[in-house]
Specification:
Elements lengths: L11 E5 L5 H10 L5 E5 L11 H19 L3 E4 L2 H14 L4 E2 L5 H7 L4 E6 L1 H4 L2 H10 L4 E6 L1 H11 L7 H11 L9 E5 L7 H7 L5 E3 L2 H12 L11 E5 L5 H11 L2 E6 L1
Parallel strand pairs: 1-2, 1-3, 2-9, 3-4, 5-6, 5-7, 7-8, 9-10
Helix pairs in contact: 1-10, 2-3, 4-6
Length: 270
């Protein structure tokens, strides 16, 4: 083993403002079942989608620096489109380990769209980013790219994972934000550009007035983790993962059953 190779028990750190990053963790766990995991949810800063670029660029790299210092991960996964589209360069500059970002899956959507009308459903902060402009220009120049931000759908996904009732109109309202734009009647692909949204993909599909294809980047991120890890060893047995929150509150215990379903059986506060 190379001198600089991580120890087998060095975890992969998954980071999000809340529980949306579980949609990124799931395919990574499926591909790499023996991967040790630390899942960090910045519930003290939640939600990110309504914060300014300056707030997130200041907060996220500093918080990740603390997490890396404490948990010594081999790779950090920014399992949050908002943090990735705003602060990824600052995060990479602050950390001395490989960093994987999560960006809207506009390229595969453009490759697959028959109607050449693509929806991008994310947070308010993500859908206004120049990064999304660049992705649309580079990969969907011949497409109409509609965008809509829904803070309500983020809160809906969090409530559903806590086992709480949530307004069933919210997924339909989120899709209406795309359908009601010029060209929306021809949309055939919806990019789920917030990691919370694949967690409620079934509800979105049920709420849609007609069939749509939903795309997210989870499987590609899993492959990227495997590539960056290379030949570095994993533990011989699947380890239990831990979830880290940045503030102690009642949501931690409410989320425990859902977190356990993703292999996160330990819950702690940073």
């Amino acid at each position: 083993m190379a001198d600089n190779a991580p120890a087998p028990d060095a975890p992969v750190l998954f980071f999000d403002s809340g529980v949306g990053g579980l949609s990124i963790l799931k395919p990574a766990r499926a591909l790499l079942p023996n991967m040790p995991v630390v899942y960090a949810a910045d519930n003290a800063g939640f939600p990110y989608g309504t914060k300014s670029e300056a707030e997130l660029t200041a907060r996220v790299p500093a918080l990740l620096g603390r997490l890396v210092e404490r948990y010594r991960p081999r790779i950090a996964v920014i399992a949050c489109n908002t943090a990735s589209t705003i602060a990824l360069a600052a995060i990479r500059a602050a950390l001395d380990i490989p960093v994987v970002g999560t960006v809207p899956a506009i390229k595969p959507a453009a490759l697959a769209s028959k109607s050449r009308v693509i929806g991008v459903l994310g947070t308010d902060a993500t859908v206004r980013q120049p990064y999304v402009d660049r992705l649309a220009a580079e990969h969907g120049a011949d497409c109409t790219v509609l965008r809509h931000g829904s803070a309500a759908l983020v809160a809906y996904a969090e409530a559903r994972l806590r086992g709480e009732p949530a307004d069933p109109a919210i997924p339909a309202d989120a899709l209406a934000g795309l359908f009601d734009q010029p060209g929306g009647e021809r949309m055939d692909m919806v990019v789920l550009a917030c990691t919370h949204f694949p967690l409620v993909e079934d509800e979105l599909a049920a709420a849609s007035p007609r069939p749509l294809a939903f795309l997210d980047g989870g499987a590609g991120i899993a492959r990227r983790i495997a590539y960056l890890n290379g030949d570095a060893p994993w533990p011989s047995d699947p380890p239990s993962g831990q979830a880290i929150f940045t503030r102690r509150d009642e949501s931690m215990s409410a989320l425990a059953p859902a977190l356990a379903g993703y292999g996160l059986t330990q819950i702690n506060v940073l």
